[in-house]
Amino acid sequence: MDPTPYPIGKPLQPWGDVEKQSWLSRQVRHRSYADDVVAKIDRLRARFDVEEYGRLDYADGALPLLAIRSRDWNDALPTILVTGGVHGYETSGVHGALQFVEQHGEDYAGKVNLLVAPCVSPWAYERIHRWNPNAIDPNRSFRENSPAEESAALLRLVAPIRDKALVHIDLHETTDTDETEFRPALAARDGKPFEPEGVPDGFYLVGDADDPQPGFQQAIIAAVEKVTHIAPPDANNEIIATPVVAHGVINYPVRGLGLCAGITNARYRTTTEVYPDSPRATPQQCNDAQVAAVRAAIDYALAH
Fold first, then answer.
1. What CATH number is given to the structural domain containing 164?
2. Radius of gyration for the chain, computed over Cα atoms and rounded to the nearest angstrom
3. Do 153 and 145 meet the contact criterion of CB atoms below 8 Å apart?
4. Is 257 helix (H, G, I), strand (E, B) or coil?
5. Which residues cross the membrane (predicted)?
6. Domain for residue 11, yes or no?
């Protein structure tokens, strides 16, 4: 048993409504989705189409879910899906997606259709958290009849391009708080013992175990390595308790786990993982790494 049990609930007993409400009462709004994200999206409206694809009506206020599209959408072109902020606390996923659109989105005009959902979980973005207010992880909830409205709304948005997408790149981070807060909270919520996995120092990718596309993954790693360092494997040749299959790459069964990376039938799919807590990386480097990953993913897909 964990010698320092999570402060909510009883060890090895799953949470009920009382424990979830206790957890929710501790969540504090640290930053503004409107100021940090919506304002940046609004500045892109002159060059891109912006749509509200859903609205989160939680007890403490409504939050619009926004997506950015290529202005001259052409069904004859391949479609690129970029998602960020599925876990709201993973800051470079959100701001890397926005930076990509701002700096490079127009570079691909006439070559691809871009669909970018930069902040899938705005409530969690504001509270620097992994879950939504119902203590549900949106990134384990991308399935039919999803219990997470964040996930359900994105599934509805993506449905028309599910079979047309060429690339889907989902932008994430692995942080020190994964090990100190979020994994312990998950274990407590589910009534399981907490088993540390370690936090890798550097960038890595999570491919789809059912269709790994190793050449695609390595092209992204090569591009990102010019911006920030790649996570080495641990002594067991693993990253977060998962075997390393190539430099900086592990694979998950993304659809079986209900992960965002499995929501389309895109030939090329991956999840980025930036490490913002490294003494060797700045916040801007983390955003730049996400941008490099997106560009490399698109360029590889178009070349192959």
1. 3.40.630.10
2. 19
3. no
4. coil
5. none
6. no
Task: Match 């669909």 to its residue by tokens.
Answer: 115
Q: What is the pTM of this model?
A: 0.97
**What is the 8-class DSSP label of residue 37?**
I
Q: How far is CA 24 from CA 135, 136, 156, 198, in A?
A: 8, 11, 27, 26
Q: pLDDT per position in the chain (304 positions), as tens?
A: 445 789 999 999 999 999 999 999 999 999 999 999 999 999 999 999 999 999 999 988 899 999 999 999 999 999 999 999 999 999 999 999 999 999 999 999 999 999 999 999 999 999 999 999 999 999 999 999 999 999 999 999 999 999 999 999 999 999 999 999 999 999 999 999 999 999 999 999 999 999 999 999 999 999 999 999 999 999 999 999 999 999 999 999 999 999 999 999 999 999 999 999 999 999 999 999 999 999 999 999 999 9
Please tell me the total number of residues recorded for the chain in this structure: 304
Joined tokens for residue 94? 């959100």
DSSP letter assigned to residue 159: G
CA distance 169 to 181: 26
Q: How far apart are CA 48 and CA 119, in angstroms?
A: 17
Distance between CA atoms of residues 101 and 89, nearest Å: 20
Largest alpha-carbon pair distance within the chain?
58
User: For residue 290, which of 247, 228, 217 has the smallest C-alpha distance?
Assistant: 228
- Please indicate, yes or no, if residue 75 is contained in any of the structural domains: yes
- Asked if 212 contacts 204 with a C-beta cutoff of 8 angstroms, the reply is no
Inside any domain, residue 1: no
Q: Residue 274: name the closest of 97, 31, 33 by CA.
A: 97
**Three-class DSSP category at 182:** helix
Q: Are strands 113-117 and 268-274 parallel, antiparallel or unpaired?
A: unpaired
Phi, psi of 232 (to 5 degrees): -80, 155
> In which domain, by residue range, is 171 found?
17-303
What distance in Å separates the CA atoms of residue 258 and residue 262, rounded to the nearest whole number? Answer: 7
